């Protein structure tokens, strides 16, 4: 250490002495804020610090982007790379620069994306966005998409949302399909074509595609088409309702544009999916209020074909919760889950492990009956999932038991089948979960009774162990 006075050193360095003496003040909430920033950065892997700052402010933190940036860098978080700039050669009349959107439903744009499932088979996606609001109106995912699929999607959007003034798209093979051109002409929607090979002229949807690729497609392995549909639909909802958009002053494109009670296309989920408790997070509803909030739900097309909304049954303070698939005919008529033959078998299983039906809580992943008891569609599962999530949050069971493949896959966010999932204890948001076969499957396949018996015994053992450790509900904390 050279023997130089502070005064002299500062003079040489041309630095004010007060700067030298300044001691940074660490605020009380620094550790909590750092923790939250890391959590958000992990949850939204490709968001930069400005977008994370917007999310924090929405959560109630009083922070500016500079403080978030400082912590971001200290924590060694990655600042996403900027997109490389692209040169522009010229712009034709259909380009988004020449013909800008000026209001909601002024210009919609659509485009196709390509990806592959893990086995190398192709995935095609049709994305439709409202250029002004930036809302993503739909992403259809399939192995193949034809002009008929484009027509079906556009027709449904026109019927449910209204007809836009213009539709902007690539002038490629999909759009040149004569049937689409003629149909749009008949509906009096004007078309804006971009020059071939000039994606920058369709900038809004191209920008959207980039985000979808960056935040989901580039980082996710899809093992099945179903898994891709569910994950892409979930990302689309998050994009519309949660993700801060830099050109919208860090607000999401459609925070509460859609009301419950509006019907959506068969097999498709509505654009934004705001829920009553999300609008008023402080007003945590009871189970009864949750039921009332959703009893007229039309968030998927099953709302139009059901007889009764089948919410759930049993003890709202239950320690054990069973989650099945969807109401069948008897359940649809009576408005209660598991009342048919499968329900009687479930009652016997419960008795065998020392529970009564009134002691536990029973619900399904879908609250409305799929016509003809067909399998739940991915978009129906995504639309209905928040209701079940909220039920579980309100009941706070010690242990969960999923019945059948769909419930296990949804709760565990996996594409693995029930035969490989069963026999072990998994975890759903910190709650132990035992997957087993659906009672209806046992009625068809007697050989699954034994593994089911083993699973429910495992459930009972784990429940007894947890009860030994956890305080009884209602006891002083
Ligand atoms: S299945 Fe669920 S999301 Fe669909 S209408 Fe019924 S309650 Fe609403």
The number of helical runs is 20
Stretches with pLDDT under 50, minimum 5 residues:
87-91, 257-284, 471-477
Overall form: globular
What strand order characterises the main sheet? 6-8-7-9-11-10
Terminal CA distance: 57 Å
What is the share of helical residues? 40-55%
Describe the main β-sheet briefly. 6 strands, mixed
Coarse structural class: alpha/beta
Rg:
27 Å
Bound molecules: iron/sulfur cluster
Count of extended strands: 11
Rounded mean pLDDT is 81
Strand content: 5-15%
Provide a descriptive summary of the structure in words.
There is one protein chain. This protein has 477 residues and is of the alpha/beta class. Helix content is 41%, strand content 12%. The longest helix has 21 residues, at 449-469. It is globular, with a radius of gyration of 27 Å. The structure holds iron/sulfur cluster (SF4). The site of iron/sulfur cluster has 13 residues, from α13 and α16. Iron/sulfur cluster (SF4) binds at residues 294, 297-300, 302-303, 366-368, 380, 383-384.
């Amino acid at each position: 250490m050279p023997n130089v006075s502070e005064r002299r050193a500062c003079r040489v360095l041309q630095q004010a002495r007060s700067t030298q003496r300044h001691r940074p003040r660490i605020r009380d909430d620094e550790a909590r804020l750092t923790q939250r920033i890391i959590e958000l950065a992990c949850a939204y892997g490709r968001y930069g610090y400005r977008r994370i700052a917007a999310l924090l402010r929405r959560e109630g933190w009083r922070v500016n982007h500079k403080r978030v940036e400082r912590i971001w860098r200290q924590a060694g978080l990655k600042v996403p790379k900027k997109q490389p700039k692209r040169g522009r050669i010229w712009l034709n009349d259909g380009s988004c620069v020449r013909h800008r959107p000026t209001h909601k439903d002024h210009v919609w744009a659509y485009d196709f994306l390509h990806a592959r499932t893990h086995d190398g088979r192709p995935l095609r996606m049709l994305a439709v966005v409202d250029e002004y609001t930036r809302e993503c109106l739909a992403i259809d995912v399939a192995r193949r998409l034809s002009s008929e699929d484009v027509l079906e999607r556009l027709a449904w959007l026109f019927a449910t949302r209204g007809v836009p003034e213009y539709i902007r798209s690539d002038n490629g093979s999909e759009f040149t399909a004569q049937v689409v051109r003629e149909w749009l002409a008949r509906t009096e929607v004007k078309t804006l074509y971009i020059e071939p090979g000039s994606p920058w002229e369709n900038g809004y949807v191209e920008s959207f595609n980039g985000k979808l690729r960056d935040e989901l497609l580039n980082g996710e392995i899809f093992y099945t088409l179903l898994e891709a549909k569910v994950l892409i639909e979930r990302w689309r909802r998050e994009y519309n309702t949660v993700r801060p958009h830099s050109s919208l002053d860090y607000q999401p494109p459609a925070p509460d544009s859609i009301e419950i009670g509006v019907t959506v296309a068969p097999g498709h989920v509505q654009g934004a999916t705001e829920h009553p408790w999300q609008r008023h997070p402080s007003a945590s509803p009871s189970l009864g209020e949750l039921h009332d909030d959703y009893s007229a739900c039309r968030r998927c097309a099953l709302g139009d074909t059901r007889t009764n909304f089948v919410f759930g049954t049993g003890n709202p303070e239950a320690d054990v919760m069973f989650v099945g698939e969807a109401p069948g005919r008897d359940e649809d008529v009576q408005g209660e889950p598991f009342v048919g033959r499968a329900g009687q078998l479930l009652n016997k299983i419960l008795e065998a492990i020392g529970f009564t039906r009134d002691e536990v809580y029973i619900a399904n992943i879908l609250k409305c009956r799929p016509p003809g008891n067909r399998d739940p569609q991915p978009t129906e599962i995504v639309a209905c999932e928040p209701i079940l999530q909220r039920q579980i949050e309100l009941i706070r069971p010690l242990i969960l038991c999923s019945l059948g493949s769909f419930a296990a896959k949804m709760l565990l966010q996996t594409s693995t089948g029930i035969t490989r999932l069963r026999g072990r204890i998994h975890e759903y948001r910190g709650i132990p979960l035992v997957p087993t076969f659906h009672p209806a499957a046992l009625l068809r396949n007697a050989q699954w009774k034994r593994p089911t018996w083993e699973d429910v015994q495992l459930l009972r053992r784990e429940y007894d162990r947890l009860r030994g450790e956890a305080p009884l509900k209602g006891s002083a904390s």
